[in-house]
Fold this protein.
Amino acid sequence: MTSRFRLVVVVGSLTLAGCGDSFHAGPIGYTENAQLGIDLKDKPKLQAAVTRAMANLYGPTPQQIKVPAGSGLPDGGVHLTNLIQQGEGDRTEVRPIALPRVDEASGQYMASKSTGKLLGEPQEGGYALYRKHCLHCHGVDGAGNGPTASFLFPRPRDYRKGLFKFTSTPTGAKPTREDLRKTLKYGLHGTSMPAFEALMSNRQTEQVIDYLLFLSMRGETELGLIAEAGVADEETADEAISDTVAVEIAQSVFAKWKAADSQVVTPETPRPPSTPESIARGRELFLGLNKTGNKVECAGCHGAQGRGNGPSFIDEATFTQVVFRGDPSGMPTRVEALTDKQKELWKASVDEWGDPLRPANLTRGVYKGGRRPLDLYWRLAKGINGAKMPAHLGLIKPDQIWDLVNFVLALPYDPTLLKGATLPGTPAAVPAAAPAHAASPTTSPAPAEDPRVAVRR
Amino acid sequence: MRYWPLLFAAAAVFAVGSFVYSPFDPDWWLPAGPEGGLTSVSSIGRRIDSLYILILVITGVVFIGTQIALVWATWRFADAPGRVAQYFHGSQRLEVIWTIVPAAILVFIALYQMGTWADIKFRSSAPKIQPLAEITGRQFQWVMRYPGPDGVLNTGDDLQLVNDLHFVKGKQSLIYLKASDVIHSFFLPALRIKQDAVPGLTIPVWFDADTQGKYELVCAELCGWGHYKMRGNVTVHGSQSDFDEWMGRALNEQNRDTVAAVGPQGR
């Protein structure tokens, strides 16, 4: 073997090294919820029982998906994958799943022009599509911890709590399939969730929704099992977390999902036209100036100018310093460096998932959950799940919610609406000279008019 | 056996052959409209294509000429027993000729394309028409604002969509291109329109199409990990009334205030 030939071999294998899956660490697998190790510390038998029950219910790995009966997923969850195993024992066979080909424009099945037979096409399956489009942000388990997640603000959704922010259903209820479809197709404006309408066919979109429902149900069942194991005895782990118990917990999760479609919140009164009077009533509600009925006050969080910088939240300069000035993993350290008063505010400025959040800047006209008046009505009437936006239906009447919707939609185009407005109980705004140390992040918030504290996104 | 000239000749024949074949295969040729064909569906596209073909012909002729010279020289003067090498100290005349000829060709191309470039890129050439939309690239989508019924952009009645461009066939459309985070590139392959969207700038882009149907909008700037997700649907409507009808439907959807089983964005 001449030295020249040896060189060729080495170079050749180096250039081929990037091909194929040889650089992957191995097949993709689920990770247990961190809560398992925390709640069941020093209880190895219970931990093992939970893991076993999860594998029996949902399959041990993403490559071997099981769907419990009664999940409510279309066609028993067959759209999650592209291969299916059927039969028992020796008669087991694994077959690819094919679907009749559909013309996207007309919705009709397509037939071969020569033979007249229906054309088929292999199904990609929700898992494959999820791996391609979603996994890098939302993670293998749907825990919102994919490789690109740390670079994003707000962080991607962790599905495992079964909690979704932008829904048409009451507070705490599951989203409808249409809610998820809307998010997937048109994205969440103002966040990193892209719009997939131009990237995926309708059929593919439905497959991805199936898989995300699967991950969400799986995650919530796991949390339920951990809670169940938390009150069980280590010695009787197998009885406490039996298959029967696991199925019961899973069924209770499924039931909540199935109930969503019948829970859609319908506005009780039609929307009044967006007249100056309606907008003015909305403005009074926003600033907490209305003297009748229950008092709501949006400005406490959203700020007297609607810029998302109200006193109930940590000031923007500090928020920017903690969230964006440095490595995301160093955030707890930066929180520790705050004063006690700021730490209290910080606690109130995180969502259910422990991620920092800001009230919307309503002057920008960017609405994460959709810009239709109906979307805004839902946001105001029933709040945002898992975030700090409370539900207002019951506190104020549907008419008043519509007034607020009209006001919010008018605000970005009419800066005079909140010009010079102040929060109730505070003296009229005096143009304060910014103190020399205002730039330091741990001092009191700079005046809202100061452009230097605008969060850049 | 004279291997080298044969190898060079084979490579040249293959290269020329693949260019000759390419117009017969839509996958090899330039992107076409929904009905296929060899020419672009937009007036700007056809001008770009004619420049492209001109340059292809010039370079093709030069390529074929140089390859013939190369093969002939290696064949004619191949090493043979008893042949003595001849030393040659260069020729000033030859050097001057083969410097001036390519330079002249380059100058010709540079001057010849100027008019086209000015007509499709210079701000002063932008058609004096109402803008169709303002399109902002952000990581990772095209945010599109169409002026609403009042015909003015950035007012409360604007239609705001994502990744969904609509215009009418057979007439110029003007958009204002912006970027809100990094550089993106607005690319309509079938119309040969490509324009970087630069943060802080508002860049007019204008185009037309003479065939109705569905087209593709992509981002042609590697703008981040989600770059491939910036695909957009482009719909060219057959008539203004067709466009207006779509616009009405989309606006109705955007103004929806009752629950109904209709998808968002008016479809």
Summary: Chain A has 16 helices and four strands. Chain A touches chain B through 35 residues (CB under 8 Å).
